[in-house]
Predict the 3D structure of the following.
Amino acid sequence: MRAQVKGSPEKSKEIVPGGVWNDVDGNYINAHGGGVLSYGGKYYWFGEHRPDKKFSTQVGVTCYSSTDLCNWKYEGVSLSVSDKAGSDIEKGCIMERPKVIYNAKTKKFVMWFHLELKGKGYEAARAGIAVSDTPVGPYRFIRSGRVNPGIYPQDMTAEEKATVWDEEEYKEWWTPKWREAVNKGLFVKRDLQSGQMSRDMGLFVDDDGKAYHIYSSEENLTMQIAELTDDYMGHSGKYIRVAPGGHNEAPTMLKRNGMYWMITSGCTGWAPNEARMFSAPSIWGPWTQHPHPFVGKGAEKTFGGQSTFILSLPGDKYIFMADIWKPDSLMYSGYIWLPIDFDKSGKPVIVWKDNWKLSF
Ligand code: DGJ
């Protein structure tokens, strides 16, 4: 995406990872940690509106539309923060990583996002839901909360479920004993009644229309994948743990030739780190870890970015999307979009490109 000059009629024809990405009016695109919905011949990009200087959410979730994925028109704020004191989404909360999916049965657009309550840092670890009859919105906030209260993950053994952990004994993190306890579900049990923590998140809609919420849980130590109800408005109660103790964030997913591929990051705040990749023949696993898929300068640190979404397009095409976080001015965090190739064995390969054209 070449920087658009304000008022210039010149259309952008290429994607410039890490470049200055402006909308068609010449304003910086402020849609971070986002995802793209394809609906009715248009693409809708939803993301976090981040302030120039402050940290917390002052505006909400923004939306941009495009027909060619290169030229983006600002559509406004799809989900606004609330001015009401005490609202879950009160101005000053933190809204991160919004994703929107369309439910063909209910004809509703459903937005899920990571929500942190105002003044509570990252302690709440909730998933928020909002809904709209149109892609752009405005979306109506429904509720927020943790995931699947009172329900154990499918892949926890009877022994793990029965174990009673003495929290005092596991106060010190990163000891071998603590690691073992985490792997066996120390935090799943701790949070069983309140529901599982949900921070960095993505959504994935399968070929059969079933949708899944993929999120960093258990103090960001373990990912979980939870099935959504048929209307996408809640969790069905069926969920698994992925890579226990693996410390993954920023989950993204694609499915190709019956194989599910997940690309995530490690947990280093806003600083880039080495990405991780996993595959599974079923969404319910077993999940196998592979080396990261990146090739080129900076590949070891995800080219300076952190994954946010994989856009699947017709014709077996996929675009990997990432954010280059700028913690001093989150608004000006940058974007990396790159095409995904596949090697002979079917593994995703993502090669750095200074610029590229969408040939599809
Ligand atoms: C890394 C996460 O991936 C981001 O979405 C954000 O939560 C930052 N951490 C906050 O430090």
Observations:
- The longest strand covers residues 94-103.
- Residues 33, 96-97, 200, 249-250, 269-270, 306 surround DGJ (CB under 6 Å).
- Residues 205 and 211 are 4 Å apart (CA to CA).
